[in-house]
Amino acid sequence: MIFVKNDNTNPYINHAIEEYMLKNFEEDCFMLWRNERCILIGKNQNTLSEINMNYVKEHNLPVVRRMSGGGAIFNDLGNLHFTFIANNSENRFADFSKFTYPIINALKKIGINADLSGRNDLTIDGKKFSGNAQYNYKNKILHHGSILFSAGIRDLTSALKVKNIKFQDKSVKSVESRVTNINEHLKTLMSLEKFKEFLADSIMSEHKEVKIYELTEEDWINVKKISDEKYSTWQWNYGKSPKFNYFNEKKFLGGIVQANINVEKGLISSIKLYGDFFSESDIIELESVLTGIRYDEKNVRALLKNISIEKYMSNINEDNLIQVMFN
């Protein structure tokens, strides 16, 4: 196990570091890191439908798309992120318990009882303090999560568009009432830096041998290249919104799914599927298969019979996709 030291707070760079580690480090590794104020978008989300653009422009917030699925989150220096990269020979995609256990176990040591709740959340007394997501690459898996330690929760509500569809089955009325900061539950005051050190020590104590690694000059050159060519580009973070004459969104067990479809001469000329669902394979593959076919339910169903939708949308089935495509 390698512990990668990272004191950088540039969100473009931090996500480039994750990708560089995933694709170049052979050993299992983990990293703790923070971002300056920014918004992080899930890989499969429509950026413009998730963010409050006026707030983003007013506060000059970076918007960064992750490699992984899941939902949009607001970040400031009161958030702490953790990343685990491991061999995935057992195909444990969407198994969040293995990677969240070290966090739950560490918190127990300081008198905080946390639980894994729903698809991918960690909660204290029913209030969320951590969201988690995963990404597959060859025979490896990247799991990362955010921890609200002393975050500006009011900024969180201002920066993002809250979707009623996501919370239609919940009785609480506001984002503020659904989330909590770790520092509200500490029995003894602790700074975020001290908490970061404590969490690193706790995770390392669970492994027989841990090497502490600092990125080399060559590493930084490669990381900067990934950041410049991908994570800091408009194309990656926003993309070109397709023209469409049909839009629908629905919430299912696997998350929210949005369908943006343009139909010309009875054929699907373009389709974009967005949402906070998780995906083992790139959703673009499914979109490509659906592009160019006749836009009718019977025809689409016939095509989907030969496709494993679960690969592209975890816990989303054929009927779910038909519902969102044809209402």
UniProtKB/TrEMBL annotation:
One GO CC term on file: cytoplasm
InterPro entries: aa-tRNA-synth_II/BPL/LPL, BPL_LPL_catalytic, Lipoate_protein_ligase_C, LipoylTrfase_LipoateP_Ligase
Entries under CDD domains matching the protein: LplA
Pfam families: Lip_prot_lig_C (PF10437), LplA-B_cat (PF21948)
Pathway: Protein modification; protein lipoylation via exogenous pathway; protein N(6)-(lipoyl)lysine from lipoate: step 1/2; Protein modification; protein lipoylation via exogenous pathway; protein N(6)-(lipoyl)lysine from lipoate: step 2/2
Residues annotated as domain BPL/LPL catalytic: 24-211
EC number: 6.3.1.20
Gene3D superfamilies, A to Z: Bira Bifunctional Protein, Domain 2, CO dehydrogenase flavoprotein, C-terminal domain
Enzyme superclass (EC): ligase
Single GO molecular function: lipoate-protein ligase activity
GO biological process, one term: protein lipoylation
Catalytic activity: L-lysyl-[lipoyl-carrier protein] + (R)-lipoate + ATP = N(6)-[(R)-lipoyl]-L-lysyl-[lipoyl-carrier protein] + AMP + diphosphate + H(+)
Keywords (A to Z) from UniProt: ATP-binding, Ligase, Nucleotide-binding
Protein name as catalogued: lipoate--protein ligase
Annotated source species: Clostridium drakei
